[in-house]
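In keeping with the milestone schedule agreed at the kick-off meeting, the structural modelling team has produced records for the first pair of proteins. Each record is given below as a sequence line and a structure-token line. The laboratory manager (R.T.) confirmed that both were archived under the project's standard naming scheme.
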Amino acid sequence: MEDQRKQQQQQQQQIDVRQSITIKGIIGLIMSYVDEGDKRKLISLGMGDPTVYTCFTTTQVAQEAVSDTLSSNKFNGYAPTTGLPQTRRAIADYLSRDLSYKLSEEDVFITSGCTGAIDIALSTLARPGANILLPRPGFPIYELCASFRNLQVRHFDLLPEKGWEVDLAAVEALADHNTVAVVVINPGNPCGNVYSYQHLKKIAETAKKLGVILVADEVYGHLAFRNNPFVPMGVFSSIVPVLTLGSLSKRWLVPGWRLGWFVINDPSGKFKDPKIIERLKRNFDVYGGPATFIQAAVPRILEQTDKAFYRRTMDALKLNSDRCFDGMNEIPCLTCPHKPDGSMAFMVKLNLSLLKDITDDIDFCFKLAKEESVVILPGVAVGMENWLRITFAVEPACLEEALRRIKSFYHRHANKQLPR
């Protein structure tokens, strides 16, 4: 009876995880299994929100800019649905620094976080019978938004043995006359990869060959701390139109401010059909954007943020990623195929043959939460069964403690019958 009960519980966990769709929903499920009697601190390596840790705080300029716009009483009313003009201009100028052409205010639209930008992009591209190509592993909000818009989803694999590069042959095989776009997430979430200039150019050339546009998710833009510098996909917009999605959330450590952007990188005007632009603007009429006073603070934030702030964030992320990578590889049942190059998370492969009573990645994460008060995202949540997504944007002391607990969990569940 006990074995049957456990089996039923595991089956229900799998159903619950697959129905939760969002990372927040799955993390919430896992946290509900944490033992309330465990007096140790709960440590989450599951969410990409570093602001819960004091070592990751935004710049003083950002705080003062928001405080000043709020106290000015000039920004208590509605903003235009596409965003404040000065905010759109400031983001256009900021993104143009890395391009060979200049974006205009009309190319930029303000959204409620990068999630809002994703939904706007997919709703604008959707049409009867259309499909979109998404990376696997990827960010599950894309699947959710696509389902709302009746967009068929087709997945292409990212290749761990090649630094999570896009399988371009798979992209070509999946695309047909109904394909509207290919999504590229760079720097990578959940893989922690940063693509080279050469690989990004090949992606752009493949999209041109297929006659589709690129959706470039750059919410982790500039968070690249190893050999490959961050190259925005807009660099290749002379080859193929690029819709760039981004936000203040990660680089400025303010995910709760919900300030995102949707940008059309299309200097040759291939995408800017008047009907498409009109449809885009109608979509913005439906959506609510970020608070007006937050929008009004953006120009000052982009212009006055000290480079030292960026360096401190990058140094902290690099240090944590090194320790997390090494620590995970010290646990026999875990393998990290690629050291993170950027962003705030990476993927770890789970070897179930080394564990005696763990059935899959979902079971691993639920039991880890219950026994060790450590929360990790199961890989199935991002499209990779029997992998784990690890977030390393945490306090170093919490990271060390989490690694100790995961190692203890492994020893408790290790398959002792295997030959040594």
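The second protein of the pair:
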Amino acid sequence: NMVTKLSSCQYALPLLVPSPISTDIELPLWTFRQIKKTWKLGSVPTSKSQLLNSLINPKHDTFFHRRRSEAAAGPPPCFNGGAGGDRLWIRHFIDTKFSDQVSQLHLEYNSKWLEVQKWQNTPGKSEELKLMQEQLEDVSEELDTLTFDLKHIVREMGQIYEAWATTPEEMGAEVSALPAVAADLLISGHPLELMDGDAAHVPLTWIESVLDKVTETLGDQRVFVLSVLGLQSSGKSTMLNTMFGLQFAVSAGRCTRGAFMQLIRVKEEVKEELKFDYLLVVDTGGLRSLELVGRSTVSHDNELVTFVTGLANMTLINILGENPSETEEILHVIIQAILRMKEVKLDPSCMFVHQNITDITTAEKNMERRLHLQEKLDKMTCSVAKEQDCDAKCFSELVKFNIQTDVHYFAQVWEGNPPMAPPNPHYSESVESLKQTILKAAAQQNCLRLSELKVRIRDLWTAVLSEDFVFSFRNNRNKLKSIL
């Protein structure tokens, strides 16, 4: 009976914990209420959250725990990113304060988003589609107004720091300490905003100061940068969270905005084999976002893709399903970015991930899909090269690419329709296979040091903002060489 119930539960907890009443080992999914009553009335010194944290991972506070003496206290006046308890306290406080206000708006947004998807696939309904997109944008703006998270606090910290950085002699100790706080957050596993998605801006002074503090704490470590690009709500963040156990925000119809980076430490026993010390994962906002319709999305997408592609050692190109029109939309802007990288002597690499594929086990079908993708890539490369006045005839001339090993097909995340659908085990298997392929390829590449990564970020963003990307990037590189 217990197994049957677990199989229909979307968020089942496969944990065995000691019973607070007897010495038996239980699976307390249905007995949390009993445990709560026992610990309220009894004298057991350990809370459920502390017990679960110690069972899952003693190094991280996965479950929020608050001591009784703090039960009536408000949020702490400041926080230390290195202290996981304080960070989780703030996240818990924010969630409690604002979750009720935005839940109804989330439902309304998801409903509008599904309607827009429906009208997009209906020919001859351009007026209705335009109306629905305007309504979706209105709900999105209202949701943005009410949504508040730790990332907004960190963004404000960055803006305050950049404002005071123009007059460093007047900067107080409280402001000068902000990069160290953000660095502690990044080191402890919290995503840090690299590009402000609302303003399409990279705060270079803030990012450089944070990376300087990270370097002071960790040393000038070797970093392999992995980024992901794809259309809105194509499963990019879900894939990264599943692959590496990260905390990028996910929500149906609500995509990541801008770019966020998260640092993952490599275990000592595999550092020599992988040849890098940390993995820096960059999650990006969805291309052709419905929320940005009418706000120069093409320019925004080009800037984002060029910046992220140049920054990363490897880019995962995520495609939802097998819709040819959507595939062409994303390929055109990505191939443009890869051409720019080749002109400035950068060698990006990429892998393609097709999600929500119904039949991933048929070898013949997968081979047919790969050949079709190869033809499309070569055709798109010729088209973009002609626009850019370049002489490229196939995709493999631009980037090291193997159609057999660099294209992966994923099944759906759920077996059925959430919330009652169980996770699809084939999805996890595909993610693990992709992870091993990425790590194998990463071991063959030359990685940047943290200090070099800081310089690369500045050079890339400065070049992206200039009218002539190639000239600007080369000029910055030449200036750096002359200084060194």
